[in-house]
Amino acid sequence: MEEKLHDLRTILSRLGPTLVAFSGGVDSSFLLAVATEVLRDQVIALMTVSSSTPPEDAEQARRLADVLNVQLLIIPHDELAIPEYAANPTNRCYFCKNSLYDICQREAQRLSLRAIADGVNLDDLSDYRPGIQAATEYSVVHPLVEARFSKAEIRVASKLLGLPTWEKPASPCLSSRVPYGTPITARMLSQIARAESFIRAQGFQELRVRHHGTTARIEVRTEDFAHLSVATVEAMQHELKEYGFPSSALDMEGYRSGVFNEGLGGKDK
Fold first, then answer.
1. Is residue 130 left, alpha or beta, with left meaning phi > 0 and alpha meaning psi from -120 to 50?
2. For residue 83, with 0-12 CB atoms within 10 Å meaning exposed, 13-18 middle and 19 or more buried, which class applies?
3. pTM of the prediction?
4. Measuring CA to CA, how many Å separate 144 from each of 30, 31, 42, 119?
5. 208 Cβ partners below 8 Å, 6+ apart?
6. How far apart are CA 200 and CA 220, in angstroms?
7. Gap between the Cα atoms of 166 and 179, Å rounded
8. Spatial CA neighbour of 143 closest among 269, 268, 36
């Protein structure tokens, strides 16, 4: 691990002034922490926030930026204004990342930063990640790939560095809860955000609320099924009805990342 950290520091030092595309997740948080250590005031983080951003992510990102003492640009962005994105095709993430990197490029040029880096890791290269194509088109670099970091190694290294994100559950954009081909609306994303926030408050940390029109399909870890008391289930059903889901169903296969990507060669992030 020390060897890989040394390699990552060397890679980042060669980049010089860098803009880090930051989501507040495990990967980009780790990258930002090491980049700040190496480049100090020559690194700036950029995060876009929209109706598809899990509400907790923006606040966690702000807190981490404060701890690292790094400048964080938070830019409001409406992906739903992109027709190709709102239509929700299987390569939806390409249109999201394309717009993100366009913003990153503009800001990097404005701030005279030479490089744009993201938190893509080795595991992502063997997963379904249409957004990586957009990164290539904008010459975005992947330092974690170059230093040969897997997702598991990023968590280990993050723990070694004392980062609070080391055990943070995966937190993909809320649009990943909508089946491909179903057009996405701001109301749907709000329903999902509120439903997941409520269920999380009941003590379930790893979960998804999949949006199937009038039905919410709830995924929690199978080991957490024992905590689903009658009272908890009734409270969830009542609350989700308030959010616009007349019916809700518990997925007996349990929580699994990227269920809508099954058969496409990968999972969501």
1. alpha
2. exposed
3. 0.91
4. 9, 7, 19, 6
5. 177, 196, 218, 219, 255, 257, 259
6. 10
7. 29
8. 36
Name the pLDDT band for 173 (thresholds 50, 70, 90): very high
Total residue count of the chain as it appears in this document: 269
Residue (of 81, 75, 42, 71) closest to 58 by Cα position? 75
For residues 251 and 127, what is the distance between their CA atoms, to the nearest angstrom?
A: 23
Q: Tell me the C-alpha distance between 25 and 28, whole Å.
A: 6
Side chain identity at 243, as an amino acid letter? Y
Distance CA 163, CA 160 (A): 8
Q: Pull the structure tokens for residue 258.
A: 């990227």
Q: Which residues have C-beta within 8 Å of that of residue 195, sequence separation ≥ 6?
A: 209, 216, 239, 240, 243, 245
CA atoms within 13 A on the CB side of 193: 17
**Location of structure tokens 């063997």:** 126
Residue 18 DSSP SS3: strand
Which residues, in sequence order, are CB contacts of 187 under 8 Å at separation 6+? Answer: 244
Closest to 217 measured CA to CA, from 244, 247, 187: 247
Q: What is the DSSP string of 50-99?
A: -TTS-HHHHHHHHHHHHHHT-EEEEEE--GGGSHHHHT--TTHHHHHHHH
pLDDT in tens, 126-166: 878 899 999 999 999 999 999 999 999 999 999 999 999 99
| pLDDT tens for each residue of 175-234 | 999 999 999 999 999 999 999 999 999 999 899 999 999 999 999 999 999 999 999 999
